[in-house]
Amino acid sequence: xxxxxxxxxxxxxxxxxxxxxxxxxxxxxxxxxxxxxxxxxxxxxxxxxxxxxxxxxxxxxxxxxxxxxxxxxxxxxxxxxxxxxxxxxxxxxxxxxxxxxxxxxxxxxxxxxxxxxxxxxxxxxxxxxxxxxxxxxxxxxxxxxxxxxxxxxxxxxxxxxxxxxxxxxxxxxxxxxxxxxxxxxxxxxxxxxxxxxxxxxxxxxxxxxxxxxxxxxxxxxxxxxxxxxxxxxxxxxxxxxxxxxxxxxxxxxxxxxxxxxxxxxxxxxxxxxxxxxxxxxxxxxxxxxxxxxxxxxxxxxxxxxxxxxxxxxxxxxx
Length: 318
Description:
This protein has helices spanning 11-23, 60-65, 80-85, 87-108, 142-159, 186-196, 216-228, 249-260, 262-265, 274-280, 290-294, 303-313; strands spanning 2-6, 25-26, 29-30, 33-38, 49-52, 71-74, 113-119, 164-170, 172-173, 201-203, 210-214, 239-241, 245-248, 268-270. The protein is an alpha/beta fold. Helix 1 (11-23) crosses helix 7, helix 4 runs parallel beside helix 5 and helix 6 runs parallel beside helix 8 (249-260).
């Protein structure tokens, strides 16, 4: 089996690559080649390929699909804060790049599995206390709109038989290792990651704000599960809202305190940011995720588990 990962140099892409190499097979078939694509080089050894390019540029997607991957993980995208700040870039990457990839598959004339990374930012308020699976997606951010367009394309291309697709609406992924990115949600990771590494962290929102999160470990599990899933059980509604842990920022900090002590938690500074606060308030806070749970998708049961996953998998690794 050949597997294509777009956005492979990103955090989830790197962890997914490592997990696939470790397990060595998908759907009972040995992995013969990983094709890793991004705008930066993703490190991998032969016989696997690391390719650099922009999916939205002519010919790039067709060149990738010429390898005829049987499994495609489409992770490439511009994150929320950057998509809001740069309208053209967000639509160019998140919409034009996605359409180019899907079109390249259609024109190649075969039907691989496509697993698409979407987001719970496709939902917009006013929100109920818990978002049910039948809640209408009406995003209030450019990023959410762009991802919703991708979801609609995935549904239509799957309905027409051009590929067999599933879209995963990821909760906020926390704790992300490495440096902060331009996602508006980046601080959710920063207030845990930075103190655990002995650094101060700014908190731009109120401590009573509630949000749903899952670890990078759980995110990789989502993608691996989607690769194996019988999509006949998913039906025509190919985009799933995934489970996570709903906690307040204060509860995040309490979990950090339990894991590392009050001196570490004291490194968090309350520094309100109206721009971030405005974006965050446009997001839903808690999800039922009933369909995804019934289909076997699993996340952590507590934020303490999320902190522990970061400590075990990433702390001290740069």
